[in-house]
Amino acid sequence: MNQATALAHPNIALVKYWGKRTGKTNIPATPSLSITLDNLVTRTSVRESERDQIEIDGKVVSDEKIEDFLVQLRAAYSLPPLSIESSNNFPTSAGLASSASGFAGLLTAIDTAFNLEMSVSERSIWARKGSGSAARSIFGGFASLDGESGDWCARGVLPARAWPLKVVIAVTSEKTKDVGSTQGMKRSKQTSPYYSAWTESTKSDHAAGLSAISQQDFSRLASIAESSCLKMHALMLSSQPPLFYWNGATVETIATVRELQSAGVSVFFTVDAGPQVKAVCQEDAADIVAERLANVPGVLKTLVCGLGPGAYVDQPR
Ligand code: DP6
To answer: What is the pTM of this model?
Structure first.
């Protein structure tokens, strides 16, 4: 029987993707840059079945994004009905990029189970059609999604081992977000007066981010990443109705990161469509950052990650 299991890790954007071009194939309106994490993982198994069934973290669900994705994939490849089982070792849909690892793993498992023989670029393009950020989780280490190649597949820009940064995630809520990224992006594009300034300024942030990564210039990358994050949240806040993803502990955690920076610790923050704060730091700063963030009132727990690999197939032992 055709079946396969794939493992994929979430990635955290340092230069953010928020907004889509008009059209159906999920082309981002902004270039983005990310790091793929190691300790958070999504495990996805697919097998041929009598009808489509999707199970996430042990519960059978109807998931419109996955259903739409299967419709698109079936228009290009002949695929039977599928049983899909996906589980995360971290909270789902809470701003921890579960859709990135989810679609990167799903596509990798389908490609293997049904011998579709996709190249890594084709896998990235297909993962992007499921969820924009998933294109980047096909790659490990530092990845860019920028449309440079014309077809909006991501590419690896620096391997994890070349610059082994750490990420301390301060989890401030495990609730599912009220407004998902797809819907939020649409709202920002339709209603924020800042939208065109955002898409324009992200181009230069992306170019500067690529150069900071190639020179491994931590303080430059820190200022580009914090600025991209804050501009994205300014755009979200200026949407109608406003997209307000932070809670009190998000703000307290950012203030603590800023105190650490003032004390000379190499760390910066970034926040996605949820209230968790990701503190990116140099390897030798991880212990102090994790200790300080764990003590911020409202932080439920901290997760410490290094940089991890791109999506891969779990080989049966
Ligand atoms: C804030 O990739 O989840 O995490 O393409 O609609 O599925 P869709 O959006 P998604 O958006 C990610 C938004 C972000 C920033 C980023 O990862 O670049």
So the answer is: 0.96
